[in-house]
Amino acid sequence: MSGTFVGMPAFPEAARAAVHNATLRGNLRHATHTIRAKRARAVAELDDWPALREAGRRIKDHTLRHLDRYLEQLEESVTAAGGTVHWAADAEEANRIVADLVKATGESEVVKVKSMATQEIGLNEALLAEGIHAYETDLAELIVQLGKDRPSHILVPAIHRNRGEIRDVFRSEMGAWGRPAPEDLTDTPAELAEAARLHLREKFLRARVGISGANFMVAETGTLVVVESEGNGRMCLTLPETLISVVGIEKIVPTWRDLEVFLQTLPRSSTAERMNPYTSMWTGTTDEDGPRAFHLVLLDNGRTDALADQVGRQALRCIRCSACLNVCPVYERAGGHAYGSVYPGPIGAILSPQLRGTASEIDASLPYASSLCGACYEVCPVAIDIPEVLVHLRERVVEGGPAVRQGNKVVLKPARGHAAERAAMRAARWAFAHPGTLRAGQRLASRTRRLHPRTLPGPGRAWSGTRDLPAVPAEPFRDWWQRTRAGRDGAE
Amino acid sequence: MSSRDRILGRVRRALADVTPDERPYGEAVPRDHLRVHGERTPEQTVELLAENLADYRAVVHRADAEGLPLLVMRLLAERGAREVLVPSGLPTRWTAAADVARIHDRAEHTPQRLDRVDSVVTGCAVAIAETGTIVLDGSSDQGRRRISLVPDHHICVVRVPGQVVSSVPEALERLDPARPLTWISGPSATSDIELDRVEGVHGPRTLEVILLS
């Protein structure tokens, strides 16, 4: 994934700074609570929500189970409609394909629709290295780009910024990128949106190359779908002569009709709207309307590795709505940056370690960035059981074992940082296998219970600093059982 | 090996647990969700469309065939529009009363030229009541996608009840995926500042929908 995040510290370290930032916590709390209530209302309008959710889950599962077939079908339909399909096994290859396509047009700047896939592969940085300037046109992406910041939310990458901070970024940075912000810019959202409109309009009108992702690709028709709000997507998809779309291979749905499910669940789950302001659908190229050349870059970059994991593959159902971020108590407090990936929040905690592997400190720590409360699963419009995958990935981190990386079968070593955990588990296993020792130990613990410390020593202090240690009973359970129930109820 | 073969090979190896006798698409995907939410007469469906359009800040008007040219004239005049974009197949009657220069939708117009036009008048392919959405499909009364995008003022005429459907599933059935489609639900908006919806970014900031009966 993006080089931006290389060398990120583990989640607890990164989160520690974030939770002490009162402004950040205030911004996140305000935004996530606003959207939470609205989403619940939008979802409640549809009395068949559970059926839509189940249909979405099944459509995506079926597609993933026959992904090879649907990829070939999609390639055929897109090609028949006048598009060109490229295949990219990893980020580097995707970036090279896009850079070469842009260079072939002779252009040195491109306009971009917000796209998670292009953030994931670090496309902007790769293009810049080739002398090509990529302008982000989504309002939140613009805020992030101008502020030399990193995205912290899937839908609203600048969610960690409040209106005052956004005004400051616009005032100080817009001038260096193009049309400056008005001198008297205030922090009302309408004025900020107006400033972005004026700043970006000149870029849209002169753009010759547009770059996008896609929310859905329909295998049977070759249709791509982009769901958006501002109109920047429509600008990038229709005004340039060349359109390049970089899309993850898991974004396929088999049929045109399948869109009826996701076009109902996605807007309500993400922006809590009955329908988002603009949805664009295009199939290849159309004579004299929109781009004359259309390139589709199909991106793997770890997705097939996730597909090989029978528990983890459900993460590939994700339609990037970000409802799970908005309800997550951990995300609300730690913010998106602590996740060290363009995919933050609960979905990021299961997606990043699967796309990137669990070798780095941050990726090995992500499955632990959760209290397993399950709110994410409740709101997920494609019913991804995020807690289940988190626990599965924790096991992989601690125990190691077989996995697939870059298409190759590997055996992962147990992670180093979890030696104490493994030792404790080994000791527990041994103790439970030796009932005599277990009984003796429990009796000893009961008799010495008045001497037990209230807090743990050493590194355990952090854990017991905010919790009471469980009290040891005066008599072990098994002794109590023997004494009171032995011989009755058919017990021994 | 090409990347295509490499990726397809990885996919096939990843799916080694999938047996060839798995349920086909038709059986694997249940469609227990509703085709339409609630029961309505055609008039009530049009009413719901008007409500939902207005809820997302589109301005809704009603007219009959006779009143339409005058209404279009009034809306353009109130806006102070001097130039209006018209798709090639737009009934000429619709803008006949308006005292404006008609700019025809042509391939050779540059985006900069379109940016100087005040308003655009189009028809639509279908309108969805439950979501307050109008869909354009590039037919001759709607024109190229860019003409309903660059001008800041869009007047869209919906023939009711003929062009109105209740729901998203019904709309998809009527639409042709081979055509370039634009679904519009209210004027351009953003939720990017504190996750709160604000109208008016890059697309037309004023959307007026005329329900033509």
UniProtKB/TrEMBL annotation, chain A:
<dbReference type="InterPro" id="IPR017900">
    <property type="entry name" value="4Fe4S_Fe_S_CS"/>
</dbReference>
<dbReference type="GO" id="GO:0006089">
    <property type="term" value="P:lactate metabolic process"/>
</dbReference>
<dbReference type="GO" id="GO:0046872">
    <property type="term" value="F:metal ion binding"/>
</dbReference>
<protein>
    <submittedName>
        <fullName>Iron-sulfur cluster-binding protein</fullName>
    </submittedName>
</protein>
<keyword id="KW-0479">Metal-binding</keyword>
<keyword id="KW-0813">Transport</keyword>
<feature type="region of interest" description="Disordered">
    <location>
        <begin position="441"/>
        <end position="470"/>
    </location>
</feature>
<dbReference type="InterPro" id="IPR024569">
    <property type="entry name" value="LutB_C"/>
</dbReference>
<feature type="domain" description="Lactate utilization protein B C-terminal">
    <location>
        <begin position="393"/>
        <end position="484"/>
    </location>
</feature>
<dbReference type="InterPro" id="IPR009051">
    <property type="entry name" value="Helical_ferredxn"/>
</dbReference>
<dbReference type="GO" id="GO:0051539">
    <property type="term" value="F:4 iron, 4 sulfur cluster binding"/>
</dbReference>
<dbReference type="InterPro" id="IPR017896">
    <property type="entry name" value="4Fe4S_Fe-S-bd"/>
</dbReference>
<keyword id="KW-0004">4Fe-4S</keyword>
<keyword id="KW-0677">Repeat</keyword>
<feature type="domain" description="LUD">
    <location>
        <begin position="71"/>
        <end position="298"/>
    </location>
</feature>
<keyword id="KW-0411">Iron-sulfur</keyword>
<dbReference type="InterPro" id="IPR004452">
    <property type="entry name" value="LutB/LldF"/>
</dbReference>
<dbReference type="InterPro" id="IPR037171">
    <property type="entry name" value="NagB/RpiA_transferase-like"/>
</dbReference>
<dbReference type="Pfam" id="PF11870">
    <property type="entry name" value="LutB_C"/>
</dbReference>
<dbReference type="Pfam" id="PF02589">
    <property type="entry name" value="LUD_dom"/>
</dbReference>
<feature type="domain" description="4Fe-4S ferredoxin-type">
    <location>
        <begin position="315"/>
        <end position="384"/>
    </location>
</feature>
<dbReference type="InterPro" id="IPR024185">
    <property type="entry name" value="FTHF_cligase-like_sf"/>
</dbReference>
Automatic annotation (TrEMBL), chain B:
<feature type="domain" description="LUD">
    <location>
        <begin position="105"/>
        <end position="212"/>
    </location>
</feature>
<dbReference type="InterPro" id="IPR037171">
    <property type="entry name" value="NagB/RpiA_transferase-like"/>
</dbReference>
<dbReference type="Pfam" id="PF02589">
    <property type="entry name" value="LUD_dom"/>
</dbReference>
<dbReference type="InterPro" id="IPR003741">
    <property type="entry name" value="LUD_dom"/>
</dbReference>
<protein>
    <recommendedName>
        <fullName>LUD domain-containing protein</fullName>
    </recommendedName>
</protein>
<dbReference type="InterPro" id="IPR024185">
    <property type="entry name" value="FTHF_cligase-like_sf"/>
</dbReference>
